[in-house]
Structure formats: C-alpha cells, structure tokens
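Field reference: sequence -> structure
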Amino acid sequence: MVAQKKLTGGVVRSDRDLADGRTIRYYDTKSQERNLVDAREPESQPEIGELRLDPLVNEWVVMAAHRQGRVFLPPKELCPLCPSTSEKLTEVPEHDFEVVVFDNRSPSLRTPQGDWALPDIVGPDTDLGTAAGKCEVVCFTSSHTGSFKDLSADRVRTLLEAWIDRTAELSKESFIEHIAAFENRGEEVGVTLTHPHGQIYAYSYVPPKVEKMLSVAKKYKDQTGKVLFDEIIAREILEKDRIIAKNDRWVAFVPYASRYSFEIHVAPLNPVADLTQLTEADRASFPEIALEVTKRLDGVFGIEMAYIAAWHQAPVRNGRDLLRLHWQITSVRRAPGKLKYLSGSESAMGAFIMDLRPEQSAEQLRAVVL
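Structure field:
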C-alpha cells in the first residue's frame, strides 16, 4: 500500500519501500500514482560507522569505510538516479518522476539500534561512538542532463517542499541534532554522480561550523540584545553594493567577508530558524530568486560553475532564537581555467585569503544579462 501525505503548494508525497527496506518518497503535483515495485534483488545494508573525537579541537569525525566502494561517475546508461526502464533497474522504480528522496545506499550516518547517546567528551579518553544520523539523496528531476538552474519555477517550488518536509520529519528523531540539505555540482567539488541531485545529512551532533556560529551569535545577543544575522542583513540592504538580487521576500548578496571569489547568500527577509518556518509567501517567492542567482553564477564566465549550495539553519533543539535560515552558494572557480584551491593557509590554518573583493564579485554577478 502507498502511504500518501498532502503538503503545501499542491505537492503530494507518496512513500514506497525499496527492495532492501529503504524508503523512497515521491513528491508530485499532478496526482500521479506510484505503484511500481522495486524489482531488484534485496541487498544487505552496510553496518553503522564509527564516531571518533579529535580531542585537539573537540570535533567529531565519522569513519565510514564502507563508502570506499560506492559508485563513481558512471556513464549515463548506468546512472542509478535515473528512472527505471525495462532494460535497467535503478534506485527509482518508476519510469518518470518530479522530485524523489530516498535513503542513501552508502550512508555516512545511519539510524542507531536501541537507545543511543553521544559519548561524553573527556579528551583523549572519549569513548568510541557509533555514527548515528540519516543520509538521504534528493533527485531534482528525472532528466539526467541539466542542473538546478534549468529547473522550472514550479519544480523548484516542489523541491523546496521536499526539503521542508524532510526537515520537519527528521527533526522528530530523538538522535538528530542538526539537519543540512545541500547540493554539490561539478567534479571540482567531488561530485560522484552527475544526475541533478542533492543530499540531506541529519547529524547526531552539532557540526563544528554551526557550533562556532552559535557561539558567536550567543555572545553578540548577550552583548547587544540583537540577533547577529538580522543585523548582517540590515547592513547589506543599507550598503546595497553587495546585493545581486532581491524580491519582496528574499535577498541575495555576496557577504562582506566572503571566502570564495563567487559566494552568494540567499536569505528570507522574514527571519526564521529553519525551512519549516517559511511562510507560504516565502515559499512561493523562493524559486524566482533561486533561479536568478544560479543563472547569474553560470553567466559570469559563460560556463557551468562548480559549486556547493547548502542550507544553513538552526539546530533542531538549541539556538533557535539565535541562528537564521539562509542558503549559501560557494563556487571554487575564480576565473576561466582557474580554481580556488584550499592550500596551506586555508587547509592547514583555516585562514582564508580572497583573490577578489566581494564588491567586485557582486558587480560581475549583477552585470550578467539573463
């Protein structure tokens, strides 16, 4: 039996089981029936990985050795994210789809068995933990070619609904502390499948960058009584020269201290903690600005820009009054034929050095003729 759920924006979610017990979720807008069964032979799923503490910086590191043999840049005829056909069975049993989300076949993080708790941090004597969490794949379209910028506005709206729905559902899991939806595009950033898709990582701990942002935001709130990100948005709107797009609900800008030559932040003007708090007006206005900024990015040099597009949101349980939702797009390309390599200063010391002033980058992005 197909389990269905009505979402906003005219989207209906239909759930089916894959042959190995994983769940696939179809997000549709045209009353499609999702009745095809995964005809592949069941396979055993990998064991849960390890969670080890780096005591020098008190950061968790996931050991997922089973991922070493995962699929790597297969040709189109072997793509596991395309719809199934009579000749080829894939991760998606149906012959066509709009947006689908399914549990990753080679997950870095897995649902733990029984009661689970993050080990107490006690330096080098910290216990070995298990890599609890969830990893999901989000397919943007059934088409193997193209990318996010080539989606229709309606499809982006459906995709946004899928991100919201997964954030809401994963937040209910007791072992989940933070949820990050992201897209990697381009071999330069490590993409292993070229089909337009993204991922969702639901962590059992708060990732290091989020912890730092939370600490800084708390200090600022204690000192000023204000939310730091709200003040950043106000500054960008006042100064204007780093803004590249804006509508009545969203603003897109190059941050004042960007780390990459082409880095774009997209934020709702109605500040919220996470995707689930976006209003219907926010959701309806997102596709317009999302498609504009991704087209501007590709238009700078007239080539597809490798990038990472990640949703930053507040942790599930902590700091929800301190951190704000925003979509960060960072491209490693700084010029045609030139990439921004994270060398000694960036990789070893975490100290970024920029090759282009953010105001110059914003001007180049604004100059793109759409």
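Note: Residues 210-367 form a domain with the HIT family, subunit A fold (CATH 3.30.428.10).
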